[in-house]
Amino acid sequence: MARTSTHNASLKPDLLDADRVPLPMLEAGMVLTWSSGFVGMRFSADYAPVLLVLLWRFITLSVCLFPFVAREIRSAPWPVLIRQSIIGVFATAGYLAGVARGIELGVPTGLAALIADLLPLGVVVISTCVFREHSPRSVWAGLALGLAGMLIVCRDAVALGTAPAWAYALPVAGMISLAAATVWQQRSTAHAGSLSPPGMLWLQSAVSCPIFLWLQAAHGNVMPIATVGFAASVAWTAILATLGGWGLYWACLRRSSSARVTSVLFLSPPITLIWAWAMFGEPLSWPMAIGTGISGLGVLLVVRPDRARGRQAV
């Protein structure tokens, strides 16, 4: 039997029919573009406050995406819109505000990225402790390997920094916020419907605008900066990190389990370091390659139960 989409078939179809693309290809694209977000944050810091870039990133997306999703949004039931808006607040505003504000207060970017990349553990812990879902031993073993590989990769990029002690809780809170939104999205979609990834991105951008407007207004000017660097920062984070990373994240989540999708993000740190090498000339090393291989083995262990369930469902 052909696979059907979990969202309402009467709504406007995706800009990209992700169901026709093999899942591993979607996951590869997700890791590549998701990793660009941390590099984009570093690139943006040279031209404008991080919160100002985030504000105009979501304003730009809200304006540009609306013509493509207006019909879907108008047709969607109010309960779906309300639920997706709350998920968007946790997934986008909660996650990015926690990570960005922590970095702004002095938490080193490498450490903030490492905490954010603990997302797979956060998802499985919430699913297990809150919803009593059972995860096979292979999943836990895969998560342990993925974490070990990630720590090896990030060994030279992590430092404690000089931020106040409470600031280190902000990236943790951001990671937990996204983990909770991920579990909620996966559990609710099958039973109550959802929006297409472009529709979700527009709604998440729209609800994030007032949050980042408030956060940036408390610290400075909210008007855009008329420089090429600022425009490039907004374009980079909007197109690669949001349309690419977040769009593919939600598309993958509709096709597979949250444990599998988030575990693939264990490969994000080495890809981020490759981005940094290409853009900023930062060195690569053999420990990074070894850590990447260990994380890859961990991802395979998490992916295996999904493949087994897929074969049983055929």
TrEMBL record:
Q: Where in the cell is it found?
A: Membrane
Membrane-traversing stretches: 47-68, 80-98, 110-131, 138-159, 165-184, 200-219, 225-249, 261-278, 284-303
Pfam families (UniProt xref): EamA
The record's principal subcellular location, in a coarse class, is membrane
Q: Is Metal-binding found in the keyword set?
A: no
Q: Which family does it belong to?
A: Belongs to the EamA transporter family.
Q: What's this protein's name?
A: DMT family transporter
User: Origin organism of this chain?
Assistant: Paraburkholderia kirstenboschensis
